[in-house]
C-alpha cells in the first residue's frame, strides 16, 4: 500500500532497506503510538528488545516495536546442522544478557587462551584464563574462561526465544522501513516511521540498530567520520583433525600479525574452527577464486612459514591468477615443500605442513593452530573493512528522539573481536539509561534522559576503536625499527601479568555485573605491582650480595695468591 | 524574610539590598499591569513578565532552562524516594514501586513549562499544574498535548496519571478547591520569586491534606549561592538571563525549618483567607515539625537535601544524607525541602 505522496520525490535505492527522506508528506492512516521503535533485528536490536522485556518496569511502562526487513521466523526456527557451521561466527564475552539460557551451549566453544604473535619477528604474547591474576578476578565457582565463540544464528535464535517467551515486544519482521519523517507539530514533533505494510509508527524514541548504512542515522542528520582500510576480511569455516590428548583441547585462539593483515583462528568445536583473515583486497579475491585446497594450504602456511616465503607464495598465486590459469593445489604444495626445505624446517616439526596430526606431537605444537584439512563448502566469504564512528549517538534538533547502537554507531577492524561486544555494551548502557529515566518519570526520548548513555559509551567505544586502529597500523609496518620496537614491547608486555589481566578485564572477560569497581581494580593492581616490586627488589639485593660475595672471594683469592707468591 | 528576630545585615547583603529596593520601586509602578493580582496575592508581576518572555525556551533542553531540565531527574528522585519511604513506613504492601504517586492528587505551584508536572503524571499522580503566567500554561499544555501518555483524564487504567493545567495563583486555587485538597504539593524554584514568602508558604501548606507531603526547592542565601547562581551563572557564563534571581529573596534552610517549627498550620483563619465560607470540620492547627534533634528535624517529619551541579558530568546530584559539613557546602546553594503534614 503505497501512498502517492510518498511516491513523489522518492529516491529509489537498492540498499538493504529502501528508505526515503521527505520533509512534508501527508499520512492518510492514523499513526500507531509507540514508546520505542527499534529499527533492525540483528544481534544489537534483538539484544535491546530482550533487555527491555527483561525489566518489569520497562515491560509495564513501554510499548516496544522491533522492525526487521528479513524473515525472523527462519532465525527462530533455526536447527543447528550436525556437521556444518554457519559462517559469521563471532566472539562473545560471557555477558549477562538474560537470554544466555536459551543459547545452545553445545554449539558454543569457550576460549581459554589466546596466542598472538608477530609475523616478522615471532614476538609472542599469550593471554590465558588460567593465569593467577585472571583466576583472582574471575567469579568463584565459575569455570575461568576468557570468552565464548558462538554462531550469529545461535545468539539471535536465543534472543528471539526470550522475546517470544516474555511477549512484551511486538516484532514486525518482513517489514521494511520506507521512510522516516518528522511530525509537523508546534513545539517539537516526534519521528513518524512509515512501514512497507502501510502502518505508521509514532515513536517516542527511535533506536537505530540497523547496521552500517543506517537510515535512522541519516534521518537524525548525524555525520560520521571514518575511512576504508585497504583490507578485506576473508571468513571461512575450517575442518581439521582434533587435538591429540597430549595437547590442550581446541579452546585456544591463534592470531598472527602479517604485514598484509592479521590472520586469526578461532575454535568452534574439537574439529571445526573459524577463520578471519584480513588481507589485501587483490589477495583476498585471488584466494577465494582458487581451489579450496589452495586456500587451506595458504591458511596453514600463513601461520607457519616466515614472512619472506609468504610474500613469495602470495606472488605465485597472484601471478597465476592474473595469467588466467589459477594455481592447482599440487603445484602449490610443491612450492611450499621447496620453501620449507630452503628454511630447513624439519618435516617432523609443527612448522611443517607434512607434520603428522595424530600421535605424539612435537614440542612446539601448542604454539600453532592445528593443520587445516578442508574448508566447509560455501562458507568462504569476504567483506571490506572500514573504520567508522558516528559523531554523536543521540540525535538533536530535527533529528531529536533518536539514538544509535551497534554498527550504526561504530564499525571496527575485527582484529580484536570487539565489534559485537561493543554493540552489546551499548545495548546494556542504553537499557540501564532507559530504566533510570523510567524510575524518575522522565521522557525516555528527551536529551536529558539519553545523555548518560552517550557519556557512558562514546569514549569507551572510541578508546577500543582507536586502540585497534593503532594496532592495525603498527602491525602493517615492515620497517626494521618499528618491528624491533613492537616486538620488544610485546615481549615486555608478555611478562607483565597484572597489565595483561587488566587488558583481559577491559575487553570484558568477566560478567559486567561482577566486575570490580575502578577503585577496587586499581587497588588490586597496585598491590600486585607492589608485591612484584618487592620481589624484584629483594632479588636485586640477593644479586648484589651474590656479586659482592663473588667479587670479595675473587679479591681474597687474588690477595692469597699474591701473598703466597711473595712468601715463596 | 522568614526570620522573626532582628535582622543583622552582612556587608555583602547591603549591595544586593540596594538592587532589591530598586526592583521594589519598579514593581510598585507595574502593579497595575498585574493580571492575577489580588490585594493579598504573592504574585510579583515583574517576575511573571520575566518568565513569560522566556516561555518559548522552556522545552529547549540546551537553552535557557537547560540546567533546570538537568535538575528534574534529581528532584523527581527525591520526591519518589520520600513518598515511597513514608508509604513503606505506614503500610509495606501499599507502596507501589512502579507508580509511587498513583491514586494521589498532586499540584505543582508555579509549574512553568510543565517540566516537573509531566514527570509527576508519569509516576501516576492526578497532577494539576498552576502558574501565574498564561504563556507558560500555554506552552506547557501544548507540550503535554504531544504526548499520548499525558492525558488530562484517565482512560483505561485507573492507576495511570493524568495531567491538566490552569492559569491561576495559589490563593485563587485555595479559594476554588478549598483547604486540604491535595496529597502532594510541590513548588520548585518558586518561593524565591514571590513577594511574600511567608504567605505563599502558608497557602501552599493549607492545600496539603493531613498526612500529605509538601515539597519545595529553592536556593539558600549565602555567599556561595551569590557566587554560583548570580555571579557565575548570570554574569560570567551567561547560562541564565541576568535578573532571573535576586539574592535578597533567597531563603535559608534553617529559616524554612523555623517556619514549620513555630507556625501553627493550617492557620486558624484559613477558611476566611479570601472571604470563602468556613467549613464545619475543625482541623487541629499545630506546627508540622515537633522539635529539632541536634538542629535537624525528625526524618519522618521534614528533610533538607542539598543538590550540587557537577560540571564535569553535566548532571545534578543529591548530596547524600549526613554528608560531612553539609550545612557549609551541600545546603549552601540549591536544596530541596520536604515536610509532612501530621495526620489528624
UniProtKB/TrEMBL annotation, chain A:
Record pathway: Cofactor biosynthesis; ubiquinone biosynthesis
An annotated GO cellular component: extrinsic component of mitochondrial inner membrane
Record keywords, A-Z: FAD, Flavoprotein, Membrane, Mitochondrion, Mitochondrion inner membrane, Monooxygenase, Oxidoreductase, Ubiquinone biosynthesis
Membrane keyword on record: yes
Subunit structure: Component of a multi-subunit COQ enzyme complex, composed of at least COQ3, COQ4, COQ5, COQ6, COQ7 and COQ9.
Family statement drawn from the similarity comment of this UniProt entry: Belongs to the UbiH/COQ6 family.
Name of this chain's protein: Ubiquinone biosynthesis monooxygenase COQ6, mitochondrial
Domain spans labelled FAD-binding: 152-278, 400-438
Membrane topology per record: Peripheral membrane protein
Pfam families hit by this protein: FAD_binding_3, Lycopene_cycl
Species this protein is from: Trametes cubensis
Automatic annotation (TrEMBL), chain B:
Subunit structure and binding partners: Component of a multi-subunit COQ enzyme complex, composed of at least COQ3, COQ4, COQ5, COQ6, COQ7 and COQ9.
Membrane topology: Peripheral membrane protein
A single MF term (Gene Ontology): metal ion binding
An annotated GO BP: methylation
One Pfam family hit: Methyltransf_23
Native source species: Trametes cubensis
EC number: 2.1.1.64, 2.1.1.-, 2.1.1.114
Catalytic activity: a 3,4-dihydroxy-5-(all-trans-polyprenyl)benzoate + S-adenosyl-L-methionine = a 4-hydroxy-3-methoxy-5-(all-trans-polyprenyl)benzoate + S-adenosyl-L-homocysteine + H(+); a 3-demethylubiquinone + S-adenosyl-L-methionine = a ubiquinone + S-adenosyl-L-homocysteine; a 3-demethylubiquinol + S-adenosyl-L-methionine = a ubiquinol + S-adenosyl-L-homocysteine + H(+)
Descriptive protein name: Ubiquinone biosynthesis O-methyltransferase, mitochondrial
Residues engaged in binding S-adenosyl-L-methionine: 75, 110, 131, 188
Assigned protein family: Belongs to the class I-like SAM-binding methyltransferase superfamily. UbiG/COQ3 family.
Keyword vocabulary terms for this entry: Magnesium, Membrane, Metal-binding, Methyltransferase, Mitochondrion, Mitochondrion inner membrane, S-adenosyl-L-methionine, Transferase, Ubiquinone biosynthesis
Location(s), subcellular: Mitochondrion inner membrane
